[in-house]
Prior knowledge:
alpha+beta, 4-stranded antiparallel sheet, 49% helix
Amino acid sequence: MRVRLLTLPFCPALGTFDETPLLELQRTGEVVQLREHWFSSGGALHLGCLVFLRPDPDPPEASEGKVRAKRESTRRLLDELDPASRARFERLREWRLTTSAAEAVPPYVVFTNRQLSEIARRAPATAASLGAIDGVGPSRVKKYGAAVLGLLGHGESARSGAPNGRTAQSIDTRDSGS
């Protein structure tokens, strides 16, 4: 539980205490309990408010731990890659950052680090092989497939291997039901 102490001086012009800081804190919806104490200091009357607030949903120590764990997880993914795959991973990561910024979404929405490491490791040459990677479904293949295959140097081979001469970007990856 978090605690804040507010000291509200008596305001003779208002004829009461200026409760603005207390009211603003109450509007946040985080106030659990309030204890008031009157006191005088230097001949002036004050209202001391001990405000108990809801616990922090994500304390700084916890978020720092999450960041550390994420970095460690990424480090492990990189350790599993050979030098060529690691270079592909870094290129893919730079592309993901640019793409996510252009789409105004977090990078993991485009591809997660685990998906990027699998793409870098396998270096798929076709939309179908890209779609075979865990978590890379038809919508991601349709949306990002051409760019990813191009980054991997398979843009032309993906196009020439596409059915009916269609580009990798327009390949229908849905199950035809046959």
